[in-house]
Amino acid sequence: MKNSNASKLSFWKIVAAVIMICGLYSSYIRFTKGLGASTHLSDSIPWGLWIGFDFLGVGLAAAGFTIAVMVHVFNIHKFEPIVRPAILTAYIGYTLVVLLLIIDLGRPQNFWHPLVMWNLHSVMFEITWCVICYSAILTLEFAPVVLEKYNLTAPIKILRKISIPVVILGVIFSTLHQSSFGSLYLIVPGRLYPLWYSTLLPVNFYISCIAAGLSMIIFESYLNARAFNLGLRLDILSGLAKIVLYVLIIGFLVRITDMIITGKTPFLFLPRTETYMFYAEVIVGTFIPVYLLSQAKYRKSRMWLYVISIFTLSGFVLNRINVAVTGLVASSKTSYFPSFDEISITMMLVVLGMWAFKLVSTKFPVFVELENLKEEKLPEDSREMILSE
Amino acid sequence: MVKQKGILYDSTMCVGCGECYSACKKQNKLPETNSDFLKDHLSANTYTVVEQHGDLYARKMCMHCAEPTCASVCPVKAFEKTKEGAVIYDAEKCIGCRYCMQACPHQIPRYEWSQVSPRVRKCVLCQNRISKGLPTACSEACPTGATICGDLDDLKIEAKKRLSEGSDKYYQHIYGLDEAGGGSVLILASVPFEKLGYTPNLPKQPMPQLTNRVMEKIPTVATVGGLFLGSMYWLTKRKNEIAREEKEAKFKRNEVK
Fold first, then answer.
1. A361-379 burial, b if ≥16 CB within 10 A, otherwise e?
2. CA distance A235 to A218
3. Is residue B212 part of a domain?
4. What is the DSSP letter of A262?
5. With contact defined as beta carbons under 8 Å apart, do A40 and A339 qualify?
6. Do B69 and A79 touch, CB atoms closer than 8 A?
7. What would the pLDDT profile of A182-199 be if each residue is shown by its tens digit?
8. C-alpha to C-alpha distance for A41 and B164, rounded to whole angstroms
9. Could you please report the per-residue DSSP string of A299-326?
10. Which residue of A has its CA nearest to B209?
11. N or C: which terminus of chain A carries fewer CB neighbours within 10 A?
12. Does the pLDDT value for residue B197 go beyond 50?
């Protein structure tokens, strides 16, 4: 038993090490030989896997603001135990996205230019600023966790005093840039396939990131509970799942109404790759999870919640990839598949992110309340609102 | 005030000699990219091409939009529309996000993919020539008068005159006059423009308006959002307090009993 556990561990360690070596080698190629040598990007496909990954990273980190707003602004203290994991996820997600953006920039030495050279008309400019400001906010939100470990109470007191305005600012910055990732594509009406192009792109991106961010927390909580043998607060996760259900329904209704009003329904029946990809996205990411989540028995099973979160997350990934790649391929008249270096650098960042999450959550009090619950049995549907004061 | 310059390219007069292509290469000191210029395509080393479509020819180059999409999407203002009408680029500012390439309605900007510190490359309407009152290199080299350079207002009048005088010779449309809000390059042809590989059905409004509509809402979203969240915080906190007080009161009442 112990033996197999150990060999399993070292197997994944070897995989991680191989990915890290490949990723570092690819980074070396990218910075010494340029983007042409390291990527399959071209004049017709100037954005590829890396931009897609940035979309995913930022979207999946959305729980950082949704959970914070529920607990600190709407005072739903039931979700208190997952605030820290959510903020840590967001923090790591944003760090990876910024790292990858710098790798992706053609002239990374100029990455600081948006700070001094302003173009208020550019969505990219707005995103840059929001991401920088939100990263600063995440630092403030996560700081107490680090300070607690070293018993530095004075700065914690200050942070606690300003916590509400900080959280509210974080929500506003998140709202603006999460939706702006959709706004990036408002300017390419002729290029992005009609099934995805819409003047409501920013709204669609915003709604879908909320569902994805919350699903990410369900997904992570399950894996963490398994890895660290922690108690899993089913009442919290079921509560999250219910929100995911509502958000998915709202998101779908907004999209379908918009399609009917703008007369895009005929595109649903064309035998094309785009149509199939659209159905894949909607069935995996909306229909299946909505069907399962609408039934209490699935919503109250750990295993099913985990499975549903995988569906929701896959649907989200498909949506972002469809917007960033599938929807643009036809109009660019070329095909695109990421290169070895693009893939290995992306995988290196995923490994780094998982490692960072594990490291920080074991060294610092991230899963505080859950740890106290270790091996303690909780009533399965304790729906009582926990009042923290 | 400086009058805006422009280019009028009349493809019905073009014989496909490639003088414009060579002159552009020479002017911008670009290396040879293809032994047959008709088979070449736009790249970091080719700012204009002559394409053959049957027995017709079509030039492709930057359209120098009046409200350039590239300039509007660039986070660091690396693009600028000069007073002479050229859309120029400053590599010193550029961070290399390539949003300009993604957003250009005419799909013109090209990238130096093979360089470690790549620049965006495209026609700059010979800015350093037109600012001195000289014609662009391509129009100076054109032996048939298919490409001419001049004041944009005069070129518009000339293009309209040609359409009305040669109503059987021309397809009745000036490409570049309204496309994506119009620009400093006007094109005439004998056939519908998509047959010559020009992007069809571009909106008449300048593309930057599509994003500006959303960008304008940002201050409102931020203020309303802030106020909403602030009041929700206060309301829900108060609600919880009342709930707790009631609970405690109930508890006390029970104790008294």
1. beebebbebbeebeeeeee
2. 12
3. no
4. T
5. yes
6. no
7. 999 999 888 899 999 999
8. 45
9. HT-HHHHHHHHHHHHHHHHHHHHIIIII
10. A187
11. N
12. yes
**Whole-number pLDDT of residue A381:** 37
Is residue A315 within 8 A of residue A282, CB to CB? The reply is yes
Q: Are residues B168 and B71 in the same domain?
A: yes
- Are B137 and B75 in a shared domain? yes
Nearest to B69 among A41, A187, A199 (CB): A187
Please state, as a whole number, how many other Cβ atoms lie within 10 Å of the Cβ of residue A33: 14
Q: What are B111's strand-pairing partners?
A: B120
The residue with tokens 């070449």 is B40
- For the beta sheet containing B185-188, the strands, ordered from the edge strand earlier in sequence to the opposite edge, are B147-151, B5-10, B185-188
B238 lies in which domain range?
A: 217-256
The closest alpha carbon to A342, from A100, A93, A45, A60, belongs to A100
Q: Which CATH class is domain A41-336?
A: mainly alpha
Nearest CA in chain A to B216: A121
DSSP letter assigned to residue B121: E
Residues A90-97, mean pLDDT to the nearest whole number? 92
Q: Is the CB of residue A330 less than 8 Å away from at least one CB of chain B?
A: no
Helix axes A201-228, A163-183, angle to 10 degrees: 120
- Indicate the helix (H) or strand (E) that contains B6: strand B5-10
Name the phi and psi angles at B186, rounded to 5: -115, 140
CA distances (Å), origin A85, targets A26, A92, A190, A341: 31, 11, 41, 31
Domains of chain A by residue range: 41-336
Residues near A211 by beta carbon (within 8 Å), at least 6 away in sequence: A244, A247, A248, A251, A312, A316
- Whether residues B222 and B202 fall in one domain: no
Tokens of A54: 């940035």
**Residue B90 DSSP SS3:** coil
Q: A107 and B94 in contact by Cβ < 8 A? A: yes
Q: Give this complex's ipTM.
A: 0.85
CB B62 within 8 Å of CB B108:
yes
Nearest to B43 by CA among A263, A44, A265: A44
The SS3 of residue B185 is: strand
Q: Examine residue B211 and state whether it is found in any structural domain, yes or no.
A: no
Residues B178 and B94 in one domain: yes
Identify whether the C-beta of residue A39 lies closer than 8 Å to the C-beta of residue A338. yes
What is the helix (H) or strand (E) element at residue A16, kind and residue range?
helix A2-33
Least Cα distance to A213 among A54, A62, A52 occurs for: A62
Residue of B nearest to A50 (CA): B97
Return the structure tokens found at A31.
């910075």
pLDDT band of residue A375 (cuts 50, 70, 90) is very low
Amino acid occupying residue A229? N
Asked if B198 and B234 sit in the same domain, the reply is: no
Flag whether residue B76 sits within 8 Å of chain A, measured between CB atoms: yes
Cα separation, A196 vs A346, whole angstroms: 25
CATH of the domain at B59: 3.30.70.20
Check residue B80 and report its DSSP letter: E
**What's the gap in Å between the CA of A2 and the closest CA on chain B?**
49
Q: Which of A277, A254, A257, A273 is nearest to A265 (CA)?
A: A257
Cα–chain center distance at A382: 29
Q: Which two tokens stand for residue A33?
A: 């030989």
